[in-house]
Amino acid sequence: MTRAGIPGLEAPDAALEAELRAGLDRVEEALQKAVRADFDFLTETASHLIEAGGKRFRPMLVLLAGYFGDPTDPRLVPGAVAIELTHLATLYHDDVIDEADFRRGRASANSRWDNTVAILTGDYLFARASEISSDLGTEVSKLLARTIATVCDGQIREVGMAGRLDLQTEDSYMEAINRKTAALIATSCRLGGMLSDAGEPHTDVLERFGGALGVGFQLSDDIMDVISTEGELGKEPGVDIKEGVYTLPVLQALEGNEELRALLADGPPDDAALARALEIVGEAGSLRRAREAVTREVRRAVALAEELPEATARTALVHLAQFIATRCGADV
């Protein structure tokens, strides 16, 4: 699915939307070039998820944040490419961890080839992202390296707690998603400010906006994982529960629900037990509370966006935050 195919994700200003689409076209072209290798098989595996499409949410944020400085700065496109390659690398590794069969509606790299190929391809994409960032300056390289370390920290926290009802709490889960998901989105926004010379005050606000947006984005995804079909998600629903990662709706549904606790007590459920667990979470008031959490993060993001100079780009950031809420049924 391309960004253009997702209703509500377009910028509310037609001129800005056209400029963003043109910028993302340049990003797409540069992504294809960035993964070309001397070995054809590596080019094929590294192109696999790029060709599957996607929202290109993080590159879009890099470009959009650039409007608080000089949006024509030529460094913005390679910065956006480095961010997307980093994100794609995490998806290759995630699919190995999750033993996923599908990603973005097509066979995952690990199921099409094997885990070794998926892991090495993810490593290759991390390396290419680092190489591109090194051309953008020392501060960009440091920022990306620090972000990759933070994302890995969040991932290993999640893995270390998987399947353990005694370890997974709302606080521990929020800490993990702040690191695993929000950090890269915050960096996307900060990078756009840095590369466009937006100035430190605006760049700091953009980074904090991205952090709030990233938490809201992940919480919204957690809800979608419970309420959406495989066709809507582009992957099997309930993968997190199946892998023993209990997201906010699950953790909230566990409170006082002995049937769900029993289903999860012996480790991650499968088949009929998984279907029943999803049914319980979908029926419980946990979805209402999870949506309230999304609303809080979206409103925090909107408040931060309103600290930025008034412009169509600021309106677009607010629109993005509100889109994250509405897609999962949360209030804005």
Radius of gyration: 19 Å
Q: What ranges have pLDDT less than 50 throughout 5 or more consecutive residues?
A: 1-5
Structural class of the secondary structure composition?
mainly alpha
Straight-line N-to-C gap: 25 Å
How many β-strand runs?
A: 2
Provide a descriptive summary of the structure in words.
The protein has 332 residues and is mainly alpha-helical. It has 16 helices and two strands. A two-stranded antiparallel sheet has the order 1-2. Strand 1 (102-103) and strand 2 (106-107) form a beta hairpin. The model is unreliable at 1-5 (pLDDT under 50).
List the helices and strands and how they pair.
Blueprint: H1 14-34, H2 40-51, H3 57-65, H4 76-98, E1 102-103, E2 106-107, H5 109-112, H6 115-134, H7 138-161, H8 170-195, H9 200-227, H10 230-233, H11 239-242, H12 248-253, H13 258-265, H14 271-283, H15 286-305, H16 312-327
Antiparallel strand pairs: 1-2
Helix pairs in contact: 1-3, 1-4, 3-4, 3-8, 4-6, 4-7, 4-8, 6-7, 7-8, 8-9, 9-15, 9-16, 15-16
Protein traits:
332 residues; mainly alpha; two-stranded antiparallel sheet; 16 helices; disordered N terminus
Brief characterization of the structure:
The chain has 332 residues and is an all-alpha fold. It has helices spanning 14-34, 40-51, 57-65, 76-98, 109-112, 115-134, 138-161, 170-195, 200-227, 230-233, 239-242, 248-253, 258-265, 271-283, 286-305, 312-327, and strands spanning 102-103, 106-107.
